[in-house]
Write a structure and sequence with these properties.
2,3-Dihydroxybiphenyl 1,2-Dioxygenase, domain 1; 4-stranded mixed sheet; 131 residues; alpha/beta; 2 helices; single chain
Protein backbone atom coordinates (compact mmCIF):
# COMPACT_ATOMS: atom_id res chain seq x y z
CA UNK A 1 0.00 0.00 0.00
CA UNK A 2 1.47 3.42 -0.92
CA UNK A 3 1.77 6.23 1.60
CA UNK A 4 -1.44 8.29 1.57
CA UNK A 5 -0.36 11.57 3.11
CA UNK A 6 2.12 13.36 5.35
CA UNK A 7 1.30 15.94 8.01
CA UNK A 8 3.91 18.59 8.74
CA UNK A 9 3.76 21.07 11.63
CA UNK A 10 5.05 24.59 11.02
CA UNK A 11 5.32 27.54 13.43
CA UNK A 12 3.91 30.09 10.96
CA UNK A 13 1.10 28.83 8.74
CA UNK A 14 0.90 32.04 6.70
CA UNK A 15 4.64 32.12 5.94
CA UNK A 16 4.64 28.39 5.18
CA UNK A 17 1.76 28.72 2.74
CA UNK A 18 3.43 31.66 0.97
CA UNK A 19 6.62 29.59 0.58
CA UNK A 20 5.01 26.29 -0.41
CA UNK A 21 2.54 27.90 -2.83
CA UNK A 22 5.65 28.83 -4.87
CA UNK A 23 7.68 25.64 -4.34
CA UNK A 24 5.09 22.88 -4.67
CA UNK A 25 4.15 23.51 -8.32
CA UNK A 26 7.86 23.17 -9.18
CA UNK A 27 7.84 19.65 -7.69
CA UNK A 28 4.61 18.71 -9.52
CA UNK A 29 2.16 19.32 -6.67
CA UNK A 30 -0.99 21.45 -6.74
CA UNK A 31 -3.19 22.88 -3.98
CA UNK A 32 -5.66 20.38 -2.51
CA UNK A 33 -7.57 22.43 0.07
CA UNK A 34 -6.99 25.06 2.75
CA UNK A 35 -8.67 26.29 5.91
CA UNK A 36 -7.55 28.66 8.66
CA UNK A 37 -5.99 25.68 10.50
CA UNK A 38 -4.30 23.83 7.62
CA UNK A 39 -3.45 23.75 3.94
CA UNK A 40 -2.47 20.89 1.65
CA UNK A 41 -1.18 19.82 -1.74
CA UNK A 42 -1.66 16.79 -3.96
CA UNK A 43 0.26 15.44 -6.94
CA UNK A 44 -0.74 17.17 -10.19
CA UNK A 45 -3.30 15.65 -12.49
CA UNK A 46 -4.11 12.73 -10.20
CA UNK A 47 -0.65 11.18 -10.52
CA UNK A 48 0.39 8.86 -7.73
CA UNK A 49 2.09 10.20 -4.65
CA UNK A 50 1.33 11.17 -1.10
CA UNK A 51 -0.64 14.31 -0.30
CA UNK A 52 1.15 16.79 1.98
CA UNK A 53 -0.70 18.64 4.77
CA UNK A 54 0.62 21.55 6.83
CA UNK A 55 -0.63 22.43 10.31
CA UNK A 56 0.22 25.14 12.82
CA UNK A 57 2.39 23.64 15.52
CA UNK A 58 1.34 23.94 19.15
CA UNK A 59 4.97 23.72 20.32
CA UNK A 60 7.24 25.74 18.01
CA UNK A 61 10.86 24.61 17.73
CA UNK A 62 13.55 24.60 15.08
CA UNK A 63 13.46 21.42 13.00
CA UNK A 64 16.59 19.28 13.07
CA UNK A 65 17.16 16.52 10.51
CA UNK A 66 19.44 14.80 13.04
CA UNK A 67 16.79 14.59 15.79
CA UNK A 68 14.06 11.99 16.10
CA UNK A 69 11.40 12.66 13.49
CA UNK A 70 11.37 13.37 9.78
CA UNK A 71 14.88 13.54 8.29
CA UNK A 72 13.81 14.94 4.90
CA UNK A 73 11.11 14.77 2.23
CA UNK A 74 11.99 13.87 -1.37
CA UNK A 75 10.03 14.81 -4.48
CA UNK A 76 10.68 12.80 -7.65
CA UNK A 77 10.97 14.78 -10.87
CA UNK A 78 11.24 13.47 -14.41
CA UNK A 79 14.33 15.37 -15.59
CA UNK A 80 17.63 16.68 -14.31
CA UNK A 81 16.69 20.07 -15.72
CA UNK A 82 13.65 20.12 -13.43
CA UNK A 83 15.93 19.37 -10.45
CA UNK A 84 18.16 22.31 -11.43
CA UNK A 85 15.12 24.55 -11.88
CA UNK A 86 13.91 23.71 -8.36
CA UNK A 87 17.35 24.48 -6.96
CA UNK A 88 17.36 27.85 -8.71
CA UNK A 89 13.83 28.62 -7.49
CA UNK A 90 14.48 27.82 -3.83
CA UNK A 91 17.82 29.62 -3.84
CA UNK A 92 16.00 32.65 -5.21
CA UNK A 93 13.56 32.39 -2.31
CA UNK A 94 16.47 32.54 0.13
CA UNK A 95 16.47 28.87 1.08
CA UNK A 96 19.70 27.28 2.27
CA UNK A 97 20.86 24.85 -0.42
CA UNK A 98 22.40 21.93 1.48
CA UNK A 99 23.58 20.01 -1.62
CA UNK A 100 23.83 21.52 -5.07
CA UNK A 101 22.37 19.38 -7.88
CA UNK A 102 24.66 16.41 -8.39
CA UNK A 103 24.79 12.66 -8.80
CA UNK A 104 24.68 10.53 -5.67
CA UNK A 105 26.09 7.20 -6.98
CA UNK A 106 26.03 5.71 -3.48
CA UNK A 107 22.23 5.45 -3.87
CA UNK A 108 22.13 4.12 -7.45
CA UNK A 109 23.35 4.99 -10.93
CA UNK A 110 21.51 8.02 -12.25
CA UNK A 111 20.43 9.35 -8.83
CA UNK A 112 20.58 13.12 -9.38
CA UNK A 113 19.32 15.41 -6.64
CA UNK A 114 19.47 18.70 -4.80
CA UNK A 115 18.69 19.23 -1.11
CA UNK A 116 17.61 22.44 0.62
CA UNK A 117 15.99 23.73 3.81
CA UNK A 118 12.59 25.36 3.96
CA UNK A 119 12.18 28.52 6.11
CA UNK A 120 11.71 26.34 9.22
CA UNK A 121 14.72 24.06 8.73
CA UNK A 122 12.92 21.07 7.17
CA UNK A 123 15.20 19.46 4.58
CA UNK A 124 13.61 18.87 1.19
CA UNK A 125 14.95 17.07 -1.87
CA UNK A 126 14.21 17.17 -5.57
CA UNK A 127 15.45 14.00 -7.27
CA UNK A 128 15.54 12.53 -10.76
CA UNK A 129 16.22 8.81 -11.11
CA UNK A 130 17.16 8.97 -14.82
CA UNK A 131 20.76 8.90 -16.02
Amino acid sequence: MPLGHLGINVPDLTAARAYYDVVMPAVDYQPFFATEEQFSYQPVDGTSGAMVFFYRTAEPRVHSPTATGVQHLAFTLSTREAVQAVRDLVAGLGSVVVHEPQEFPQYHAGYYATFWQDPFGLVLEAVCHQA
